[in-house]
Amino acid sequence: MDAPRCTDNPTVIKYIGSKRLLVDQIVSLCNTIAPTGGSVIDLFSGTSRVGHALKAAGFGVHANDHNAYAHTLAMCYIQADAPKLIDQATQIIKDLNAIASGDGHAGFITQTYCLDSRFFHPDNGRRIDAMRTYIEKLNLDPELKAIVLTSLIEAADRVDSTTGVQMAYLKSWAPRARKRIELRLPNILAHPTRHPCSAHQLDAIDAAKALTADIAYLDPPYNQHSYLGNYHIWETLVRWDHPEVYGVARKRIDCRERKSPYNSKIKIADAFARLIDSIDAGTLIVSFNNEGYLGREQIETLLANRGPLAVLDRDHPRYVGCKIGIHNQTGKKVGKVGKVRNTEYFFIAGDGAHRIADAQRKLIAA
């Protein structure tokens, strides 16, 4: 079998809150703040798309996320050093594709997410079960295992039958769901010269207290949508703990228990204030938008003690799911399409705010 293809992008899973269209601007902001390079803490790393781009730009990146699947993505795209692992990862992914060329065997994924629900076609469910069982038996070092699991997550995402989140699945199979699953080598990078990179799985405040960098990038959850609830299958695929599940979407039982204060309209302001006070970095970049529980003036007030402040805003398309309307848990359309654009804000507080303001003035003058 041929060697696995390498993905062109850092990660390609469908993800609400993705900064795919804003990542170039974020890298530009960091380059303006620290033109000679430096280090960045990403306290809510998610897919690690932003951290990967910063790593490619030469920054030392320290990624953090409390969800296991996000930590795995960060281990792959941030902490892993490509020259040390790429040959081993290539061979394992090749072996996994050989397994996927067969029929596989039915297990937890097939029963729970193909038969009890319809997130994946049963043919691919059996292959996912077989590959994930094989990975567990290999007893891999954490970084290598993260690369392989990331490859599996991304491959499964390419053949799912959802509206983009794992709260619902389509009534009829999506065309992509009938394609045979195929793994690709993730686009892992070498560490930048003189700048180590790391991945952490901590509460955001604990990570803020433990990590130090020139810049801290904050892209927290900002409304009621829980990332764990929306991507519970990836959490299970990483943990491989065969959890108790509930509801039509067969969500992990801990989706009921693991609640983030950032998903609470009542708790978010206090949590955000305590987090800001805990960060050890000269400059903070906060990414937020006008659909969040906190308004622009509230965030400006919370950042007031961090020194000078610059605010940038940008009109931005909303997540693709909003364009296809509201669906219930079986994929039936039950609501109309809402607004398709929002305003994204970048709040730059601290030492780097003057550099951003100067750059903006020069751009306007030009």
Describe this structure in words.
This protein has helices at about 25-35, 50-55, 70-80, 80-100, 110-115, 120-140, 140-160, 205-210, 225-230, 230-240, 270-280, 295-300, 355-365, and strands at about 40, 60-65, 200, 210-220, 245, 250, 280-290, 310-315, 325, 335, 340-350. α4 crosses α7. The chain has a single domain (about 25-365), classed as Vaccinia Virus protein VP39 (Rossmann fold). The longest helix has 19 residues, at about 80-100. Strands 3-2-1-4-7-11-8 form a 7-stranded mixed beta sheet, with helices on both faces. The protein has a two-stranded antiparallel sheet with strand order 5-6. The chain is globular. The model is unreliable at about 320-330 (pLDDT under 50). The protein contains 13 helices and 11 strands. About 45% of the residues are buried. Helix content is about 40%, strand content about 15%. It is α/β, with parallel strands linked by helices. α2 (about 50-55) links the parallel β1 and β2.
User: Rg, please?
Assistant: 21 Å
* CATH 4th-level superfamily: Vaccinia Virus protein VP39
Total domain modules: 1
Low-confidence blocks of residues: 319-331
| Strand-residue proportion | 15-25%
Categorize the overall geometry: globular
CATH level-3 fold name: Rossmann fold
CATH class descriptor: Alpha Beta
- Mean pLDDT score, rounded? 90
* SS field, number of helical segments: 13
Which structural category fits the helices and strands? alpha/beta
The total of beta strands comes to 11
Helix fraction bin:
25-40%
CATH architecture: 3-Layer(aba) Sandwich
Largest sheet: 7 strands, mixed
Q: Can you list the strand order of the major beta sheet?
A: 3-2-1-4-7-11-8
Distance between the termini: 55 Å
SSE order in H/E notation?
HEHEHHHHHEHEHHEEHEHEEEEH
